[in-house]
Specification:
- The protein is an alpha+beta fold.
- It is built from 11 helices and 12 strands.
- The strands form 2 sheets. Strands 1, 2, 3, 4, 5, 8, 9, 10, 11 and 12 form a 10-stranded mixed β-sheet that branches. Strands 6-7 form a two-stranded antiparallel ribbon.
């Protein structure tokens, strides 16, 4: 088995729901990210890309079911390059990267492009077909933007609560206060803004053709715990989860270049990080926010290291409460988590977020001279994924 490496990564700015990227189809968003990624390695013959794997949580609309293939064609890759689409909801693009790394390790490919895309703005309504022709009653169109839809009545009711209600239950379980959640959200905005101001994202984020948006649209550097405290609970009258301490609805795309050690000559650049371990975990659907705890433990075990070795963590901030629950369980220094901001500020376009956190982690390790890092993401319906990266781009600080 050979090792798999992350060679490069890019993403678009993440736009707000009905915001700066609302006019852009998801297949075009993905195609733009793929094209930008490949243009950064001009020595790479695009015919040498052996697979494009993209994550997408919807697929019901302009993605045309297989946005991986559609985006590859729109990006101008040779028609001989295959494309597939992975759907593991919020973890889709991390799943795509994990699948790409397995292809490299088993020798099935030398160069693979992975990533993901979501336009939550343009997610369509769906109208279920009637059981028989010409029904006399009304029909209801169902939004595919987020969460459960067309729920199977055989599912236990406790499994199919809303994402927000599920995290209110998590808050009760672990006694995480509204104040802690709001302070965590403020930190996300502060660090994301500081990272943009310092130029951290200048090389990671690429523009979308025809769109003036150049930065993540949802970052609010002026947020304070006091202003967030004034927001009303979104899911329970006496709840703690608000629009301010949860990730918003977003549009965006991410892309990663993954290859073998030998692929450096083909790609024309040196790798950034080695994929050292992968982990997946599942539990009760309503407890999905806590699933990254064991997913990361599994990834660490497969990498042969422990939490004492980890110097950077990229944890997708679906909700402040679930992020805090995971960090508390890992017993790590909270200051190594999401040092350049997280999804509460940057955004969470479902199919693109896993690629964002993995690419950001590789860059954090490189910029800060750190050796080991973890990228982890919770996934609706009780799942989570995690990846351990080892920095191979240069020396480490310790």
């Amino acid at each position: 088995m050979s090792d798999a490496f992350v060679y490069d990564s890019v993403r678009t700015p993440f736009g707000r729901y009905n915001g700066g990227l609302a006019a852009v189809r998801p297949d075009d968003l993905a195609a733009g990210a793929l094209k930008a990624l490949l243009e950064r390695s001009p020595g790479l013959d695009t015919a040498a890309v052996e697979e494009v794997i993209l994550g997408n949580a919807n697929g019901a609309g302009e993605e045309n079911r297989n946005v991986g293939r559609m985006a590859a064609l729109l990006a101008g890759l040779p028609v001989s390059v295959p494309g597939s689409t992975v759907n593991r909801l919020c973890g889709s693009s991390l799943d795509a990267a994990m699948g790409a790394s397995r292809m490299i390790e088993t020798g099935d490919a030398e160069v693979v492009v992975a990533g993901g895309v979501e336009s939550m703005t343009r997610a369509p309504w769906v109208l279920p077909k009637p059981d028989r022709a010409f029904p006399a009653g009304h029909a209801t169109a169902v939004s595919t933007t987020l969460g459960w839809r067309l729920v199977n009545p055989a599912m236990p009711a406790e499994w199919t609560v809303s994402l927000g209600e599920a995290n209110e239950q998590l808050r009760e379980r672990f006694g995480i206060s509204r104040r802690r959640q709001d302070e965590f959200a403020v930190r996300s905005h502060r660090l994301a803004h500081a990272a943009w101001e310092a130029g951290f994202y200048d090389e990671l984020v690429v523009g979308v053709p025809g769109v003036p948006l150049t930065r993540d649209e949802g970052i609010r550097p002026g947020s304070t715990a006091e202003t967030l405290a004034g927001l009303k609970p979104a899911f329970r009258e006496d709840g703690t989860i608000t629009a301010g301490n949860a990730s918003p609805l977003n549009d965006g795309a991410s892309a990663l270049l993954i290859g073998s050690a030998a692929a450096a000559a083909t790609i024309g650049r040196e790798p950034l990080a080695r994929v050292a371990g992968r982990g997946a975990f599942a539990l009760e659907p309503q407890s999905f926010g806590y699933a990254p705890v064991q997913a990361a433990e599994r990834a660490l075990a497969r990498a042969g290291i422990g939490w004492a070795d980890i110097e950077a963590i990229e944890l997708n901030e679906a909700f402040a409460v679930q992020s805090l629950a995971c960090v508390d369980a890992w017993k790590v220094d909270p200051e190594i988590v999401n040092t350049r901001g997280g999804a509460i500020a940057i955004g969470h376009p479902l199919g693109a977020s896993g690629g964002r956190i993995l690419g950001t982690l590789a860059e954090v390790l490189r910029r800060d001279g750190l050796r080991w890092g973890v990228a982890a993401i919770c996934i609706g319906v009780g799942q989570a994924l995690a990846v351990v990266l080892e920095n191979v781009s240069g020396s480490w600080n310790r």
